[in-house]
Design a protein that fits this description.
The complex is a heterodimer of chains A (about 220) and B (about 90). Chain A has about 220 residues and is an alpha/beta fold. Chain A is built from 5 helices and 11 strands. In chain A, the strands form 2 sheets. Chain A has a 9-stranded mixed beta sheet with strand order 2-1-3-4-11-10-9-6-7, with helices on both faces. Chain B has about 90 residues and is an alpha+beta fold. Chain B is built from 2 helices and 4 strands. The longest helix of chain B has 15 residues, at about 55-65. Classes of the chains: A alpha/beta (about 220), B alpha+beta (about 90). The interface of A and B includes residues 61, 105 and 148 of A.
Chain lengths: ~220, ~90
């Protein structure tokens, strides 16, 4: 069975929901601790949402130097699938595993809504279950979710198909409506919305988010 | 002991919603004529021993690695009365 590690940092909020989504997708969720230099032999890693280290300094800036990140960065470079959701996306940007940065929403308010997205790249380790161009509804909840990068970087991301998901109706000022990006290899994905909150009909806006977790099963079986 | 100050500011082209919020609050308090506000961070580092070039170079490294995010921020390192510029702050 595919084993997906979920890292808990001080201040992580969505680690349990992420683990649940991984189990619903048919994989085994393994709890990883920020302070351990140990990935416990997992096949993929998920950095969950929350407010690691209280968002002190900058979101993700301190978590990026947590002991476990040494191993996450090393394995990501070798091709291990890594997904960062919300605060996890911020950590991946601070780690330079992904380009750009996330700054405060342009409307200066915390946003919490069911957000429409378009899957722009369905070839990554975390989006291969979706149809190219699929439109999905996934919860978005953040105060600092506005994706920024310089124009050259944005042009490169577009040209290389590295925009993974785009907002339909820009909720926070993200440049070019970018909701998620990937690295050159397509194994590292950062996503501001929370697919782990859209995996069951009982709570949340539906099950559109499940595809991110079933995708990694395909990616790790193929590896 | 020496005190080194690192000032970190959002790059000019990066939207600064916090600065905008402060700018919006000023007229409500009767303060007029402020055309822009940018909000940054100031770090005061107490450095043990003499402030050698090596130590100062290390402060620059700290500023680039942790204190600022070069994607969205510039920094300036200052020592006592003299100032050393880092990043691309204009």
């Amino acid at each position: 069975m595919t084993r997906v590690g979920v890292v808990t940092f001080p201040g992580s909020l969505d680690d349990q929901d992420a683990a649940r989504a991984i189990r619903l997708a048919g994989a085994e969720a393994i709890s990883l601790w920020h302070g351990d230099h140990d990935l416990q032999g997992v096949d993929a890693v998920l950095l969950p949402g929350g407010f690691s280290y209280g968002d002190y300094l900058r979101c993700g800036a301190i978590a990026r130097f947590a002991p476990v990140m040494t191993e996450v960065i090393a394995e990501a470079a070798k091709g291990m699938p890594v997904l960062g959701i919300c605060n996890g996306f911020q950590i991946l940007c601070e780690s330079h595993l992904l380009p750009g940065a996330l700054i405060r929403n342009d409307h200066r308010k915390f946003g919490c809504l069911d957000q429409r997205l378009r899957i722009e790249n369905n070839t990554t380790a975390w989006t291969n279950s979706y149809d190219q161009g699929a439109e999905v509804t996934i919860v978005l909840k953040n105060g600092e979710g506005s994706f920024v990068a310089d124009e050259d970087t944005l042009d490169r991301l577009e040209a290389e198909g590295r925009v993974v998901a785009r907002y339909l109706g820009n909720p926070n000022g993200s440049l070019r409506d970018i909701a998620g990006v990937t690295n050159e290899r397509g194994n590292v994905v950062g996503l501001m919305p929370h697919p782990e909150h859209a995996v069951e009909d009982l709570c949340g806006p539906g099950t559109d988010g499940l595809g991110f977790f079933t995708s990694v099963l395909q990616a790790t079986i193929g590896a | 002991m020496a005190r080194v100050v690192v000032d970190v500011m959002p790059k000019p082209e990066i939207l600064d919603p916090q600065g905008k919020a402060v700018q919006g609050a000023l007229p409500r308090l009767g303060f007029t004529g402020v055309t822009d506000v940018r909000q940054g961070k100031r770090f005061e580092l107490e450095i043990d021993g003499d402030l050698t070039d090596e130590r100062l170079a290390e402060v620059h490294k700290m500023a680039e690695t942790l204190l600022s995010n070069p994607v969205i921020e510039d920094y300036v390192v200052s020592v006592a009365d003299s100032a050393e510029t880092g990043g691309s702050q204009g």
